[in-house]
Design a protein that fits this description.
Helix 1 packs parallel to helix 11 and helix 4 runs parallel beside helix 9. It contains 13 helices and 17 strands. It has 436 residues and is of the alpha/beta class. The relative contact order is 0.13. Strands 7, 8, 9, 10, 11, 12, 13, 14, 15, 16 and 17 form an eleven-stranded mixed beta sheet that branches. A six-stranded parallel beta sheet has the order 3-2-1-4-5-6, with helices on both faces. The chain starts with a strand and ends in a 6-residue tail after the last strand. It folds into three domains: 167 residues, Rossmann fold; 162 residues, Dihydrodipicolinate Reductase, domain 2 (2-Layer Sandwich); 83 residues, Alpha-Beta Plaits, CATH 3.30.70.260. Helix content is 36%, strand content 27%. Helix 3 links the parallel strand 4 and strand 5.
C-alpha cells in the first residue's frame, strides 16, 4: 500500500478538525484510498489544545511544509489571500499537490493557481471552499457531468441564514442577532464579508464557473447584503406566504449569464425556505436530471474537515495515474473554458416585493399604479396596511409580476418623488426557483 504524506498548514477550527478526523477514522480513510495516509508535518503558529500532537513533526514556519521533500500533499487552511497564495504557489513549485478550503483564494486567484498546477502536472482540490461538508463541487464536476446546467440557487453563507432565520421566527432586530452570531462564533468580529454578501459571492463565482464552463471571475457579479433588511419586511413576507433568504443565483439565459447575490423572497412551500440556522442548501436545475437539492452543514470544524479529507483521498487514489485522467479543477480542461456574457443587474428579469409609506387619501394608489403601468410593470397584488391611530401615512406593499430591474428602478425613482410618499421605497427580489 502506497504511503502518502500530508502536510497540514493551519491548526485553527478547520485544521484541528482535519487532524482529529484523520486520527479517529484513519483505518477507514486508508481503506477507501487504498493508501497509507498520514499527517507527517503540521505548520502552525501555536499548538491547539484539542489535538494530540505528541507524535507529529511541528514547524512554526508554514513554508517549511511546502519545501519538505517528504510531503506529497499540502493542505492550506490558514485563510486570507496573500500568505495563502504564496504558500500554495510555493507548494506547487516544490511538486506538492494542494488541498484548500479557501474560497476567497480560489475565487480571486483560482485561474492562475490552476494554470500553474497544470503546468507542473499537479492537482489542486477545493471541495471545502463552498458549502462546508456538502459535496457540491464533486456533484457539479462529476455527478452532473452528463447535464447542461440551466441554473443554480443556494443559501451558501450560514451566518446570514442564521440571522434571517432568527429575524423570521422570533422577530428580532438585525443588530441583536448579529451580536449573538458573533458570540457563538458564527460571525467574525468584523462581519463584513458575511453580512455584505462578499463570502457568498466568492462561492457563487466558483459554482458558476463549474456549472457553465467559464473562467473564474468576480467581475460582473452583483452583490448585495442583508444589513438594510428590516424586521417588518421579514414579517410582511411571512404574512404573504414567503420567506426571505440570502441567495446566490446563477442562471443561463438567451441574453447571457446572471450572477447575483442578494436577499430574496421565496415561497414558504419551497424546499429551500425551510433551511434554517447555519445550514446551507443549493438547488441545481439541469436538463437531464431536473432539479436537485444539496443540503447540509455549511461550516464547522468536522463538516468542513470531511470535505478536506475527501479531497486528500481523491488525490491519493490517482497519484500514480496520468494527469490527463484526473478531473480538472473546474470540470473541464482550461483550454475549453469559454468567456460568457454576464448580464447587468438592470437587465435581469424577476418579480419584486415593494414597500413604501404613503399618505392615506384617495387617488394616491392610482398615481402609483399609473407610474408602474407607464414603466411596463404588471402588478400581482397590492396590500395597504391598517392605519395606526393618529398616523396619516400607511405602509403599502406591492408584489409585481416578472419585470426588468431597470423598469423597477425607474418606477421607484418616480414614486419617491411623489409628495404623497414619505421616505425611500424598499424593494426585494422574488424568486420561485421552480420557474427560474
Amino acid at each position: 500500500m502506497r504511503e502518502v504524506k500530508v502536510g497540514l498548514c493551519g491548526l485553527g477550527t478547520v485544521g484541528s478538525g482535519v487532524f482529529n478526523v484523520v486520527s479517529r477514522n484513519l483505518e477507514a480513510i486508508n481503506t477507501r484510498s487504498n493508501c497509507q495516509i498520514s499527517i507527517a508535518q503540521v505548520g502552525c503558529r501555536r499548538d491547539n489544545k484539542d489535538c494530540d500532537m505528541s507524535a507529529v513533526n511541528i514547524t512554526r514556519d508554514i513554508f517549511d511544509v511546502a519545501k519538505n521533500p517528504d510531503i506529497d500533499i499540502v493542505v492550506e487552511l490558514i485563510g486570507g489571500t496573500t500568505v495563502a497564495l504564496e504558500l500554495v504557489m510555493l507548494s506547487l513549485e516544490n511538486g506538492k499537490h494542494v488541498v484548500t478550503a479557501n474560497k476567497a483564494l480560489i475565487a480571486e486567484h483560482g485561474m492562475a493557481i490552476f494554470a500553474y498546477a497544470e503546468s507542473r502536472g499537479l492537482m489542486v482540490c477545493y471541495e471545502a471552499a463552498v458549502a462546508g461538508g456538502i459535496p457540491i463541487i464533486k456533484a457539479l464536476r462529476e455527478g452532473l457531468s452528463a447535464n447542461r446546467i440551466n441554473w443554480l440557487a443556494g443559501i451558501i453563507n450560514g451566518t446570514t441564514n442564521f440571522i434571517l432565520s432568527e429575524m423570521d421566527t422570533k422577530g428580532r432586530e438585525f443588530a441583536d442577532v448579529l451580536s449573538e452570531a458573533q458570540a457563538k462564533g458564527y460571525a467574525e468580529a468584523d462581519p463584513t464579508f458575511d453580512v455584505e454578501g462578499i463570502d457568498a459571492s466568492h462561492k457563487l463565482a466558483i459554482l458558476a464557473s463549474i456549472a457553465f464552463s467559464m473562467p473564474l471571475s468576480l467581475d460582473g457579479l452583483f452583490t448585495d447584503g442583508i444589513t438594510q433588511l428590516e424586521p417588518q419586511d421579514v414579517a410582511y413576507a411571512r404574512e404573504l406566504g414567503y420567506v426571505i433568504k440570502h441567495l446566490g443565483i446563477a442562471r443561463r439565459s438567451a441574453s447571457g449569464i446572471e450572477l447575483r447575490v442578494h436577499p430574496t423572497l421565496v415561497p414558504e412551500r419551497s424546499l429551500i425556505a425551510g433551511v434554517s440556522d447555519v445550514s446551507n442548501a443549493i438547488m441545481v436545475n439541469a436538463d437531464a436530471v431536473g432539479t436537485t437539492l444539496f443540503y447540509g452543514p455549511g461550516a464547522g470544524a468536522e463538516p468542513t474537515a470531511s470535505a478536506v479529507i475527501a479531497d486528500i483521498v481523491d488525490i491519493a487514489r490517482v497519484l500514480d495515474s496520468y494527469p490527463d485522467s484526473w478531473v480538472p479543477p473546474l470540470g473541464c480542461h482550461s483550454s475549453v473554458l469559454q468567456e460568457c456574457t454576464l448580464m447587468a443587474i438592470e437587465d435581469v428579469e424577476t418579480s419584486f416585493y415593494i414597500r413604501f409609506s404613503a399618505l392615506d387619501k384617495p387617488g394616491v394608489l392610482s398615481d402609483i399604479t399609473k407610474i408602474m403601468g407607464d414603466t411596463g410593470i404588471s402588478i400581482e397584488a397590492i396590500i395597504q396596511r391598517e392605519q395606526p391611530a393618529g398616523e396619516r401615512y400607511v405602509n403599502v406593499i406591492i408584489l409585481t409580476n416578472v419585470t426588468k430591474e431597470k423598469c423597477l428602478n425607474e418606477a421607484v425613482a418616480q414614486i419617491e418623488q411623489l409628495e404623497t410618499v414619505r421616505g425611500q421605497v424598499s424593494f426585494i427580489r422574488v424568486e420561485y426557483l421552480d420557474q427560474l
